[in-house]
Amino acid sequence: MTVADFGWDTNLEKSFAGHRAHGLVPARVVRAERGHCDVVAETGPVRAAASPPSTAAESLTPCTGDWVALRPSTRIDAATIVEIVPRRTAVVRASAAGTSRGQVLAANVDTVVVVVSLADPIKPGRIERILALAWESGGTPVVVLTKADRCADVPQALDEVSGVAPGVQVLVTSATRGDGMDIVVGALAGTVVLLGPSGVGKSTLGNCLLGENRLATGAARSSDGKGRHTTAWRELLPLPTGGVLLDTPGLRGVGVLRVDEGLDQTFSEIVELAGDCRFTDCAHTVEPGCAVLTAVDSGEIPQRRLDSYRRLLRENAYVASRSDARLRAERERHNKKEIARMRRAIKQRSGNRHR
Ligand SMILES: Nc1nc2c(ncn2[C@@H]2O[C@H](COP(=O)(O)OP(=O)(O)OP(=O)(O)O)[C@@H](O)[C@H]2O)c(=O)[nH]1
Ligand SMILES: [Zn+2]
What we know:
Layout: H1 10-15, H2 17-21, E1 25-32, E2 36-41, E3 44-50, E4 67-71, E5 79-84, E6 90-94, E7 102-107, E8 111-117, H3 124-137, E9 140-146, H4 154-163, E10 169-172, H5 181-187, E11 191-195, H6 202-210, H7 218-224, E12 236-238, E13 244-246, H8 249-252, H9 261-266, H10 268-274, H11 291-297, H12 303-354
Parallel strand pairs: 3-5, 8-9, 8-11, 9-10, 11-13
Antiparallel strand pairs: 1-2, 1-4, 2-3, 4-5, 6-7, 12-13
Bound molecules: guanosine-5'-triphosphate and zinc ion.
């Protein structure tokens, strides 16, 4: 397994020329821990240390899926990550603890699969929430409906989900019957992540894509109790059909989100209609001449969908305001330090003069 199996291509190679000139080599982060990463380099798997943030203002925090510039070492596993190649896309969520700092969960993701089980009642709000995160990443969302064998009315379910996923491919599968897998394979490109709540069939789907049982599924987990995964290289797996499957436990449940464009894309039909509202800053609540409310009245857009859009807008504005407050606080702290430093310098200089 080398970088080619993990998506290294001629474009990336071109952008890496400067690093090559400095004796650095490319690698992809398979698993990131504090200060250390498992990466795959041209020679195969390597354990590498993230170099301490000495010069850079931002600390170097690689995450799963990152391409990095590696300073190789003759000693085994003594390679150092010198730089992160700028991310093309990233799945980011507001930190789990409810703080406002975003946490990058996966980098350089091309296809974000939103996995929805047909065995359970469909929850449109949850699908919209994950879709917003998927769009926001910069990757292409695809919805995969699983467990079609457990659903009495598949066309109706497909209709309902398609209604909350404008512009997104929605595919129906059944792992038990083996239905729809070839179409899913055809819809995926590059680095693929599977998002969705526990038990919807992500591991089962992942195994179908991998062509072998490398991810422990719910059934296996409960019988052998061996935890989720069965391989050491567990978080970035090359697919036999090309591309890479990125499977990170932290990605499975999705918490609070910080999205801007992602929301517009998730609710694209509302955003499009909003262009016809009389007021450009229309909130689509009570305004006269509101094209969105007119569409809700006529049944073109379900009231639930508008409510969901407004709820996510509010939630996002709240997270945004908190993160602005954090930035302000950080700036103030920095300014205070700067003032203290200047005072010390002045004091020292005047001390020198008096000597
Ligand atoms: N009937 C049916 N059952 C399925 C299908 N796909 C998955 N399952 C079952 O659903 C259960 C959960 O599947 P998993 O693949 O473990 O779900 P998961 O989303 O990976 O769950 P977490 O790992 O907890 O996030 C297992 O018992 C699977 O066998 C399907 O297409 N049809
Ligand atoms: Zn309006």
